[in-house]
Amino acid sequence: MGDSTDTDKPGIVDRLRQRFPWFDRVMTAQERYQHCNGDFFAAGITYYTVFALFPLLMVSFAVGGFVLYSRPDLLHRIEAKIRSAVSGDFGHQLVSLMDSAIDQRTSVGVIGLATAAWAGLGWMANLRKALTEMWEQQSEPAGFVRNKLSDLLALLSTFVALALTIALTVLGDPTLMTAVVRWLGFGHIPHLGQMLGIASLAISFLVAWSLFTWIIARLPRESVSVRSSLGAALIATVGFEIFKQVASIYLKSVMHGPAGTTFGPILGLMVFAFITARLLLFSTAWAATSSDNLVEAPIDPPAPALIQPRAYRSDGVDVGAVAVGAAAGLLGGLGLSRFFRRR
User: Would the pTM of this model clear 0.85, i.e. be above it?
Assistant: First the structure.
């Protein structure tokens, strides 16, 4: 017998999976992520994240317009600084543009809120669809109105939790926390700012862990066990906290030049949203492929067999066919009789 070829041997990845169980676990989650189009859903989440930024800016401008309208002294100081910093017609145009935005603050705020709600619901629907796909759930839709109300409630709670963890991360900066402590009048206590910064980071970590656990377990269309999502949420939280620190360093490094000031924040937001979405979906795939969640996939019964017997109808004896058959038999018989006589 011939020797076995190289194709019969397992590859490097297969050998590593057989040798290291943790590596096999990672590859199993990655296979679920790729099979369920994780990158496609992460790109959709990123799109809605960036798209929702513009109506949120409109709402911010509207809020700023109401504040400046109620504070004429502050408005005059800002206009004076604009005229001193930007001379000529361009400075007057900036002041006129600001005055126009303040006058239209109500309409800008209403349009911004409506657009933000629409974009936010699209973002949440895409996120819940992606999480449902990672779990390979086959749930029936509950109805348009019910789904939108559920998405709206989930959107508000997710936004509050995400804003809280980002705010705690910002306050975790030792320099900023020290300045806050001095502003509050407690600067005489040694190392209080550093201790509060560490406490803020710890609280931020716990809030992010709770947030990711809730997202992985409750945002899919069919809720799953929280216990099975804790480990996956811990992976997402550690990666999220590390990436937040890297993103803060990136923003500090690109905010010095005019090009970085213009394009740095939007590019940073896109990268931040895409990496966070990928991390969240991979962690969900990790939870979905754990041993206590791997169940046999339901197999649909075969389609019913359709038996269709073929029936032929006879309209009676065909006289022409019988006459042709009789003539052919008579000629054949005569030919055989003459053959045997000659012999």
Answer: no
